[in-house]
Amino acid sequence: MTKKEIISKIKKIKGVDDSKAKAIYDAGFTSVEKLKKAGIEELSKIKGINKGLAKTIVTEIGKKEAETKKVEKKKTEKEGIKEKKVEIVEKELKKIKPKLSKEMKEKLDLREKMKKRKPEFLRYEWFRYKRLGMKWRKSKGIQSKIKKHVKYRIASPRIGYSSPKEVKALHSSGFKEIIVYNANEIKKINPNTEALRIGHSVGAKKRNEMEKKADSMGIRILNRGAST
Q1: If you classify domain 3-91 with CATH, what class do you get?
Q2: Hey, which residues does 176 pair with through a beta bridge?
Q3: What residues have CB less than 8 Å from 120, skipping those under 6 apart?
Q4: How does residue 169 score in pLDDT terms, banded at 50, 70 and 90?
Q5: Does pTM top 0.70 for this prediction?
Q6: Cα separation of 49 and 67, whole Å?
Q7: DSSP label at 162?
Q8: Helical axes 3-11 vs 18-26, angle rounded to 10°
C-alpha cells in the first residue's frame, strides 16, 4: 500500500485529521498492522496525540479488525456451504446408472475381464526405431512372423480379442455416449440408456446452460466441467 492510502485509512478514525495522520505515519506506523500492534503509551508520545485519542485509535482499530474477521468468516461459511451443495449434487449425478438387462450387465462384466487379459499390441520392430513410436500398425510382407501369428512373436489384433458386440461401443458406466453441441439436442437423449458428452467446441456459457438442462432432466454428463 502507498503512503496516501495508509494516511487516508488512519484519517477515518475519529479525532484524527491530516496533520495527525501524517504524524502517526512519520512516527513509524507505516502500515495498519503496525497500528494494531501499537499501545496507548507509544501513540501518546506522538505530537498532537494525547492519551484519550490514543485510546480511541486502539479501540476503533480493534473494532474494525473484529468486523472484518466476522465478514470474512461469513463469506467463507457461505462459500463452504455452496461448495458442499455443489459436491453433493455432482456426486448424486455421477451415481446415475443406466437401466440395463441382466444379459447386458453380464456382457459388460465380461468385457472388463477381457480387457484385463488383453495383451498390449505393438507395431513391427517397435524396439529398433524410436521414430516408429508405440502405436499399432499392421505388419506387412510375405515373410512377416507377426502376420503369420507365429507363437514366439508378439500378439497382433484378431477377432478373438474383441469384446461382445452389444456392449462394444458403450461407455464404462454402461451408457451409450452421445455428443451434444446445443441444448435442443439434449431433449432427444434417453436418460435410462444414454449419457451426453458436450462437444469440445462448446463455450463456457453455453456449457453451463447445457449442464443445468441435463441435470434437470436427470441425464448423466460424462465430461462435466471439462475445459474447452
Answers
A1: mainly alpha
A2: 194
A3: none
A4: confident
A5: no
A6: 25
A7: P
A8: 130
